[in-house]
Amino acid sequence: MKNNQLPNFFEIEHEDKVALVDPENKVCLGVSRRIADNLDDEVVQNKVYPIWEQQVKLQRKIESEHEKINTVYLLVTRQCNLNCDFCAIDANTYAIADKEFTLEDVQKKIVPFFQKCRPHKIIVTGGEPLIKKGIVEIIENLHEGVQSPITLQSNGLIIDQKIVERLKGKINEIDFSTGHMFKNVSKEKELIKHIEMCQSAAINVVLSFMYEKTNKTDIYKMIDIVAKYDTGLLINFVSPVGRAKKNSILLTDLDIMEMYLDIAKYIFNQGYMSKLLSSITGQRIQIKNACGGYGKVMAVYPEGNIYMCQSLTSEEYRIGNILSDTAEAVMAEIEKKLKDEKIKKTFCVDYKEICNQCEYKYVCPGKCPVSYTQDDYSCYFVKKMINYQLFQKKDYSSSEDELKEFISYLETIIEEYKK
Length: 419
Description:
There is one protein chain. The protein is α/β, with parallel strands linked by helices. It has 14 helices and twelve strands. The protein has a nine-stranded mixed sheet with strand order 9-8-7-6-5-4-10-11-12. It has a three-stranded antiparallel sheet with strand order 1-2-3. The termini are far apart. The mean pLDDT is 89.
């Protein structure tokens, strides 16, 4: 590249603003329409090039310091003490545990495997992980042997002070699913007790909630708890995976937008802006050409099989078995898979028919391969939220002003959608 020569940007336009997207270097610059129309002008290039160059250097530094595998989902069991209709892996109380990996397997196979592939973080999940025999010892071995940050996902039904004390200093975060905790007042009190126990042990707490039309009032109860105890908040929507294929009513874009609007108004009316604003207004834009399943994720199932994504467990997405294959063999299989055209069509926006003509494709990981709207090319709400991050959001004098504008924005896009 010649001095001060800019790359060929992809453009996302909104009124008199343009986002210049450089997918190769994973950089996005916000400029005026006038600047975007005159990128061949030497004066404009001399102005834009140093900013672009600085962002490229920053992005390369970040990538050089980041592990190749971003996230390992370690599903320690298929057993669970709940039978949720939306469970992605069909976990239940009747699952057979005799084929699942053991503590000895963790010590002799799994820890050495992770020591070689060095994941950025490990999420211990299930089923219900705390049902797993020797789960605390498993986490202790992961903590001592791998030294990656560990998140434990749990429904919280059987956690107690003794378990928390043993997990202290071993896990960085615990994510409690909460939908089942609002059936009665005693369950809510139990959830609060669990939060206090974990926070006293310096374990970060995140409350996750699977939103459906039928549990709308419960989400307000959770928001009250999140605000009071300053926990993280994660709102999920049902995907057609596992039992959810048959048992759950999937949400439309309008359902999701109206849910966001209701929550934003509740947060505003309760005065929770300072604690919950970032949870509702969205995350910062990242430039990508694929979702994490394209070589950044390992999903290890209880029988040892490893898949490219925790939601895709057919043979074509299998990359090995942690109990029988070496880390080198699995990493080599990942590299082989990344060259496979079918894999690219599953994960990569340039190869997905539904995504490859979209102007937003590099600021969005693309349609999830398990999405129930695979044939819906509009992606209305996703695009509107990207527009908000790229063009609407600015520096506000207060969190109250920011949330007011976000509420107004949601009302506007909902009205546009209904027309």
